[in-house]
Amino acid sequence: MSTHTEEKEKYEKAWNTDGYRAHSPGESSLKAFEEIAKPEEGSSIIDFGSGTARASLALAQLGFRVQMLDITEQSMDSEVEDYLVDNPVNLKFKEVNLWDTNSMFQYHAEYGYCCDVMEHIPTEYVMLVLNNILACTPRAFFYICLVPDAFGQIIGKPLHLTVKPFLWWREKLNEVANVVDARDLLHNGMYYVESREVQS
Amino acid sequence: MNIAIANPILIVGPARSGTSMVARLFNEAGVWKGTTNTGNDENPFGFYENNWIRDGFTKTFLGMSGYDPLGVEHLPPQDYYALDRQSEMMLNPIIPQLLVNDGYKSNMPWFYKDAKLALMWRHWHKAFPNAKWIVVKRDREENIKSCIRTEFMNELAKDRGEEFWTNWVDAFLVRIEDLKQEVDYREINTDDIVNGDLITLENAINFCGLKWNEIKAQSSIHPEVWGKDKKTMSRLKLNMGMNLPESQLLDNIKSNIRRQLPQAKTYEKNNQRIAIVGGGPSLLSTLDELKAQVKQGVKLVAVNNTHDWLIAHGLKPSVHIMVDARPHNARFVQNPIKTCKYMMASQCDPSVFDTLEGYNTHIFHVANELGEKDILDKYYFDKYFFVVGGSTVMLRGIWLMRMLGFTKMDLYGFDSCYMDGEHHAYEQVENDECEVRELVCMGETFQCAAWMASQFDDFQHFITNLGDKFELNVHGNGLIAHMMNEGAKLLNDKTVTGGT
Cys-Cys crosslink for A117: which of A49, B69, B174, B260, Cβ 3.0 to 4.6 Å? Predict the structure, then answer.
């Protein structure tokens, strides 16, 4: 079984387990994203690893055009599925593998939003995912958990596969883009990066 | 009226009994306070009296009724109740309107703290029969002394002396005894709180339906500012680097937090023994002890200039801590080493951080109540800690290292006194001109600069309140080592006596 298939099955199991859906870091980080990235009204945003999609829904309701990408469609809240039916233009979903460059290649947006995702990526794929994200968007906001997850015990497999310190992530991001803002929020790191093309 | 607005928490006690501290603790427990005055030397963390209610209602009401609006000179009688039915109804519309004007939002728990509540408590009780009252109690004699020595109180009643303030405090106490017969209340003893006994505070917080957080409460209580005169507060400020203009201190913080540095964070307790090395003169005579401990695996923590001193004596610090905001302290980090972790307060001069660029540097935060909380709340989205501990880098360092999980600590060069005429184990010209005073501790006389006496005082409070969280061993024969040794002897004697 490929790593991708294995991970997909793991998350399908997680999303169908009581309690996992209750907490959505992506949703709670929206305020920080708006404050730091200051996306212009109506801009296009890719939500990398959209999870419950509650953050994407909130962004779409604010008038942004949002493309959601996630390893499994089963992560999405039913409320968002309902919204998609009526609003297929400003909110879209696609099941993708974030480290598969070929499947990521077709997506482009002015901003990237990636919360509670990078720590879930197997360490050997971290740089590939970062490169893929920065190929899709010139500006990206990351919110990364710096400590092990508690939920993995329930499903028998760890969910945070890359638990690294704040500075480790800043250095990795710095390899693919300019780190405009980086804040250590104790258990989480918050980073806003711009591609070097934008900065030049 | 919505439920929250009809159920205020009303905090009352004579002025200088600790009502501001109690109000601050309620505010930090999540209760809305509205606009209040910032602090001064004698009430350093603020007054916590809602300006809108105080000026828009309390003072107006007292003044219009023919009494001193400030509640000092001409007090209403003990059984004062002046409102007719129509004016009784005014209290309810007036207070909610003042709250709304001040930005109050529906359903927030709110408090009003004012000593003058004791003068007009019947009116408040009539208007807010479901209010929770918090009665603040302090030792009567200390309360009176504090009124006498406090500048802003004396400005209210110039040259009135001890008799006046004794009668004044008693006038409030007798009214508070009356109100306790009628209202739903809990009493908080502020003397107990600053001595580390938080039980009355915990009861009061629970009584008001708030969430009790002992760690947060402990870190918000500052015994070092309790019962101090103005001169002592000035020493405290000097040592915290607050002799810089406030704006510069805040500018330092704003600039330094944007350096993308990791924050110091809390860890589980560990068993690694550490030696925190201060610059006191006994450091020279205890160097061999220190080297022996290092050979046994003890890790070294330097503060300020001991970083270079240790390296010059063949020892490498694992951690270096600095708190002071003055720019000249940048000279202490001119020779950084790759194996050391640099823990720098966000208020330090930016040149300190410039020098440490590329080294293993962490940032932490100390509270001076100058507006840094607002800056840090906004920048870190509330995700940060303040390091508590006292007026000097040694005291802060002890608590910082405890936060990092270290509980077993040896303290070197932590004397708080001159020894053979020297204030440090090395040259430190800033301290050459300090005024020296004598301080007697447990039968022995020590020569101390003001900052040393202040540090000693803070350390005593620190040990009293937080001593059970550490295993501290103070080396040398300075003032602090003497106090620890003699205190331990006393404890042993008491234990023996108690057993016979």
Answer: A49
